[in-house]
Write a structure and sequence with these properties.
155 residues, mainly alpha, Arc Repressor Mutant, subunit A, three-stranded antiparallel β-sheet, 3 strands, 62% helix
């Protein structure tokens, strides 16, 4: 059995391209550029798009529950929902059983817009097979969840 005597690289020698956080950040920017013309045609921002997608998963969600799903604070999500409501895609109503909660639902127009937006398929642009795409998505979710837990553990 042999042992490795390799040392970790000197942190000052690590290039920006070698940082995982930068790879994720720059991939996010690339996704944004890819989505922009598609979403511009739909009249949506990326955050509005993912909000419609998340709302389509469960009707009548609370704003706080939707925020948790989207990793958004209510002070960020509320203006998005107000804009989607003004566009005719979302209804917001106080929960009659708990007036402190606001429930959001997609309107018929919102469901149609979600269907149009859901036709976006980026597997080809990612250069991945269906299996590779699914595997990478699961790995990124695991990475995100680990980071969220690390932040919570440190708090």
């Amino acid at each position: 059995m042999t042992s490795s005597t390799q040392k970790d690289p000197d942190p000052t020698d690590v290039k920006l391209a070698d940082y995982l956080c930068f790879a994720v950040y720059s991939a996010n920017l690339a996704f944004g550029k890819l989505y922009r013309p598609i979403l511009d045609d739909l009249g949506l921002t990326y955050t509005q798009y993912v909000t419609l997608v998340a709302m389509g998963e469960e009707d009548g969600q609370t704003v706080s529950g939707l925020g948790e799903k989207l990793f958004l604070e209510s002070n960020t999500l509320t203006p998005i929902l107000k804009k989607l409501e003004a566009m005719g895609f979302v209804d917001r109503k106080r929960d009659p059983e708990n007036e402190r909660q606001v429930r959001v639902t997609l309107t018929k127009a919102g469901r149609r817009q979600r269907e149009r937006a859901s036709s976006v398929d980026l597997k080809d642009a990612c250069g991945l097979s269906s299996q590779g795409f699914a595997k990478l998505q699961k790995e990124i979710v695991a990475l995100r969840d680990n980071l969220v837990h690390a932040v919570r553990d440190d708090a």
